[in-house]
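Why should sequence recovery work at all? Because a backbone constrains its sequence more than one might expect. Tight turns favour small or flexible residues, buried strands favour hydrophobic ones, and helices have their own preferences. The token representation captures these environments compactly. In the example below, the structure is given first.
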């Protein structure tokens, strides 16, 4: 390899973190909106005079939009490219956040939430696509975990920091500020991001690794045929269900009803309640890095999923069943951290999706699995909301949340069962025509 080539390789190895970094800023916005509504629940209920079920549906509007956009997101990432896709998506999210913040009626709030969901839905799949172009196969699990960690910083901001921000600025101004920030990030994505190293005159990762670059990989894939391949591949679907079960359960606690549970069952102040659920989000962030790195280091996917998944179900068992659904407050913070820490089994589900399908359609394969998590996150919160609407006033808070969180426990258990059906890839692409 010539000196010029070595220079290009060094530039690639440096600039890939610029590309990944600016897209990760957009992903922080994704997580913020994912969890922020639960923190301003009281403000929304009082402003719009809505029921628990309506509040649950308002939160789920984001997830329905996100879910329905996953396959189109994969197609956009594989055809239009991650750079333009994230730029437009983050711009839409900014506009939607401003609409949500200044919504005069609940219908405008639903519209704003819908636009936010549509906008942010394209970001993560685009990052996975970027990773497949700028990072080695052996780095994919680790980078997916780091990406999830960075995104979770947005979830952390949507907890106690958001409560404080709302106290100073009101909830309306807070969401408008986040909207403006999103628009700025969308501009940065367009200016700094590139879809592939080749767009900058740099060698591809495949060339650096000494892998053969297939001709089919050099041209645009047939998106419809690619989607059919992914959907018809039975190895795609276990990861879908694992993500649905685990993440759906987590969102009911961290994004919708966790603060209310802590306030009503433990009688603790709102800022302190938000700090407790923030502990679960921090756990998710840390666990995402640990499970990704652990998987890549031992060259296994299924074993880490099983170990983490087992502890995750045990954590839910303690939360829902110990002392009738009210564990001692002394163990609550470490319990919530462990619940978050072991939840990101789905990080490896994304890697498996890429590794059991053709590499040229990495965007589509990961997007199909990604639908699962947001299907679970869309269905479960309104389901719990109906429980609260039906039984509020007839049960004590402990009994009420025990009954509601039973659905979260069942969701986690179903996800765990499907880990056994995951195809072990040993951290490499095992797809065969």
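From this structural description, the recovered sequence reads:
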């Amino acid at each position: 390899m010539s000196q010029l080539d070595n220079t290009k390789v060094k530039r690639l190895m440096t600039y890939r973190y610029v590309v990944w970094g600016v897209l990760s800023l957009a992903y922080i916005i994704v997580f913020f909106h994912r969890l922020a509504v639960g923190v301003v629940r009281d403000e929304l209920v009082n402003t719009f005079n809505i029921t628990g079920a309506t509040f649950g549906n308002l939160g789920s509007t984001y997830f329905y939009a996100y879910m329905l956009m996953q396959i189109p997101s994969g197609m956009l990432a594989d055809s239009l490219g991650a750079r333009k896709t994230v730029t437009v998506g983050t711009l839409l999210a900014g506009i939607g956040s401003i609409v949500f913040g200044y919504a005069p009626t609940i219908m405008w709030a639903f519209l704003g939430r819908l636009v936010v969901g549509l906008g942010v839905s394209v970001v993560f799949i685009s990052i996975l696509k970027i990773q497949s172009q700028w990072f080695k196969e052996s780095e994919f699990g680790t980078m997916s975990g780091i990406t999830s960690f960075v995104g979770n910083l947005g979830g952390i901001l949507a907890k106690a920091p958001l409560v404080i921000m709302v106290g100073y600025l009101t909830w309306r101004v807070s969401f408008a500020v986040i909207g403006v920030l999103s628009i700025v990030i969308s501009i940065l994505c367009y200016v700094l991001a590139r879809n592939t190293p080749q767009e900058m005159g740099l060698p591809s990762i495949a060339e650096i690794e000494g892998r053969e670059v297939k001709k089919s990989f050099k041209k645009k894939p047939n998106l419809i045929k690619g989607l059919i391949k992914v959907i018809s591949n039975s190895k795609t679907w276990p990861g879908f269900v694992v993500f649905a079960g685990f993440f759906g359960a987590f969102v009911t606690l961290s994004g919708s009803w966790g603060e209310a549970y802590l306030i009503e069952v433990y009688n603790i102040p709102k800022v302190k309640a938000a700090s407790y659920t923030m502990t679960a989000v921090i756990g998710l962030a840390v666990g995402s890095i640990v499970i990704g790195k652990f998987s890549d280091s031992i060259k296994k996917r299924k074993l880490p999923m099983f170990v983490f998944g087992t502890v995750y179900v045990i954590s839910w068992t303690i939360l829902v069943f110990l002392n009738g659904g009210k564990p001692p407050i002394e163990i609550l913070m470490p319990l919530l951290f462990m619940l978050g820490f072991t939840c990101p089994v789905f990080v490896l589900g994304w890697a498996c999706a890429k590794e059991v399908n053709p590499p040229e359609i990495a965007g589509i394969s990961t997007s199909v699995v990604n639908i699962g998590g947001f299907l679970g996150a869309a269905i479960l919160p309104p389901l719990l909301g109906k429980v609260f609407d039906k039984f509020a006033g007839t049960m004590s808070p402990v009994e009420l949340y025990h009954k509601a969180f039973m659905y979260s426990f069942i969701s986690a258990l179903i996800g765990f069962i499907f880990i056994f059906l995951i195809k072990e890839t040993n951290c490499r692409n095992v797809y065969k025509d």
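A few observations help interpret the result. Residues 54 and 382 are 8 Å apart (CA to CA).
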